[in-house]
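Case study 2.
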Amino acid sequence: MSARKYFGTDGIRGRVGEATISADFMLRLGNALGRVLESGNPNSIVVIGKDTRISGYMFEAALEAGLVAAGADVRMLGPMPTPAVAYLTRSLRADAGIVISASHNPHEDNGIKFFSAQGEKLADAVELAIEAELDRPFATVASEKLGKASRVDDALTRYAEFCKTSVADSFSLRGLKIALDCAHGATYQVAPKVFAELGAQVEAIGVRPDGLNINRDVGSMHPEALREHRQRCGADIGITFDGDGDRLQMVDGDGRLHDGDALIYLLAKHWQRNGRLQGPVVGTLMTNYALEKALADSGIVFLRAKVGDRFVHQALVERQGLLGGEASGHLLCLDRASTGDAIVAALQVLEALHDSGQTLAQALTDYLPLPQKTVNVRIAAGAKPLDAPAVQQARSDAEAALDGKGRLVLRPSGTEPVVRVTVEAADATLMQQVLDRLAEVVQAAS
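Prediction:
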């Protein structure tokens, strides 16, 4: 496969105003996508959604202009979760979907994600075709072939109804008090609506976006905000999302935080009991070993994919599995949604608890994750510290120290200039010592 010039592991992402995250590049990007689509399907339709970053207005307009110039029609969704764009791409019979979002990153970052007509991440061949078009001059079709743009006024209602259909018609949240944290992001309107319409008493924070406060001290990157909010309002359970609505974490009634691994464990066990589970459960290199062992003890096959939801998705499709995800809270329930959907995943957990008659704390009593910690070491652009002899030696020393007692992962991020250093061990003191040493050596080599 050819090397990518613009696309990373999860679309295109960076600092607003720099390199590819600029208005002029977005204009060309929209034009390139439009030309790729129009070459195989004249009069193509592209939907565009965004999170709540102030820069989304600028990039939305630029993408729209580029697409229309190539002859594609555009349907504007406004602020919508990433999985909502995936769903609406299918529902509106569009040829592609675009999300303007940098997910859990701060407001000064932004990015672009694409979906195919099936509501899935674009195939490698399509991404490479778009990159090839980006290297060609901007082109405008004849006036009579220009595309048109329009707003989809009922996008939020359409998506809310889709979320509710992911659970049984008889399912109700009546009597349950839910604390929500929407990260001042893309779920700020739709998440409270969905849970309230299913009968829950909803107490929400992170629902006042101003264009600059997305993910700031709230959301799944700052779960302490939800823990404090749940305790303050006396909720039975807490749910926190990231800025674009594809990640979640939960807090139980005792105030304990549960990540994606714990929620996958809960769903896998419940689905195994009711016959819904098919194929293997898929995690990543970062998945806590406790999940792998717990599933094996229950006779459930577990596989690890490379980090990134697209790789989890690929592995699930190849092995005909339905359930997978990452510790970060990006969960895939492929019999309900074509991509990671935090609201849908939260509803699956709540339905499992409802059916079993358990609280979140009770359902996870026997899941005991090994102590694990990740440090993000910021690096200079283009730096490759993992190739440095000092880092390789430190890694070898760390693996020797952890032999039979834990594991480690060093990997460059695909979305920001950092190396993620993760260490896991039954002995928390050993874990911290190894983590500190590795992070120190990686930083020195950066």
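The first strand starts at residue 12 and ends at 15.
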